[in-house]
Design a protein that fits this description.
220 residues; alpha+beta
Length: 220
C-alpha cells in the first residue's frame, strides 16, 4: 500500500521510490573516477622544416587502386550478400535489469536488520525513548524523504556509521541507496493523514519494536 501511495498518478505522498521513474535524483550523473581521464592524450606532432614543405607535400600522394574490375557474376554475388546483410535483424542491446544499474536501482534485500533514527517530536513515535531503532528491511522499496510531511523514522545520510546491524545486504548497493531515505512517513492529506511504513510493521507478529508506531498511527 505504501508503494501504491508513492506513485505519481496516486500522489498520496510527496515521497518517491528510489530508482523509480518519478525519482528526481535517479538520473543525476555519477561522479567520474579521478584516475580515468575523459579523453586519451595524443602526442604533439613535430614541426616540419619549411624547406621540405613543398617537396614532401608534392611527393606524398594517395596510392591508386590497382584492383581489376569485377565481372558480372562477382557483381551479382556482391549484390546478393548486401541484400542478406540489409535483411538481417539488428543487434539489440540486452534487457536492462536492476543488476545492470546498481548505482541507481536497489536490489531486493532478503531480510536485514538496519539502524534507523527516530524523530521523537512526532505523535507517531510517542512512547519511544531511544533515538535509534532497529528496523526490518525486506524488499527493494526505499522511500525518499517526504517534502511536505513528517519523516518520523529515517536512515542516516552520513556514512560515519554502518546501517547494517545483522543480515545480508548487497555490497555497494543496499546501504548506499538506503542512506538518507525514510522508513516511516506521516503525510497530511485533506482533513486526515496518510501514514506510510516502508515495511510491514506487524511482520509475522514478531517484530514488536514497530507495534507502538502502528497503534499510534490511528490513535493520534
Amino acid at each position: 500500500a505504501a508503494v501504491f501511495a508513492a506513485l505519481k498518478d496516486v500522489n498520496l505522498t510527496s515521497s518517491r521510490l528510489v530508482g523509480s521513474d518519478e525519482d528526481e535524483t535517479r538520473d543525476k550523473p555519477a561522479d567520474k573516477p579521478a584516475d580515468k581521464p575523459d579523453a586519451q592524450a595524443t602526442p604533439t606532432p613535430s614541426p616540419t622544416p619549411q624547406g621540405d614543405q613543398s617537396g614532401a607535400g608534392q611527393r606524398t600522394r594517395q596510392p591508386q587502386s590497382t584492383a581489376p574490375p569485377l565481372s558480372p557474376e562477382q557483381q551479382r554475388d556482391l549484390s546478393g550478400q548486401t541484400e542478406k546483410l540489409m535483411g538481417a535483424p539488428p543487434d539489440l542491446p540486452p534487457i536492462a535489469s536492476p543488476s545492470a544499474k546498481p548505482e541507481r536501482v536497489p536490489e531486493p534485500v532478503p531480510g536485514a536488520i538496519m539502524r534507523a533514527a527516530v524523530d521523537r517530536s512526532t505523535p507517531l513515535t510517542f512512547g519511544y525513548e531511544e533515538t535509534h531503532l532497529p528496523v526490518l528491511v525486506d524488499s527493494a522499496y526505499f522511500f525518499r524523504p517526504s517534502k511536505q510531511g513528517t519523516n518520523a523514522v529515517v536512515f542516516a545520510a552520513s556514512d560515519a556509521q554502518s546501517l547494517r546491524i545483522a543480515g545480508f545486504i548487497w555490497p555497494g548497493n543496499t546501504e548506499r541507496l538506503l542512506r538518507g531515505t525514510s522508513y516511516v512517513i506521516d503525510e497530511p492529506t485533506g482533513r486526515g493523514h496518510v501514514v506510510l511504513f516502508a515495511e510491514d510493521p506487524n511482520f509475522r507478529a514478531i517484530w514488536r519494536n514497530a507495534t507502538r508506531m502502528f497503534f499510534n498511527s490511528f490513535l493520534f
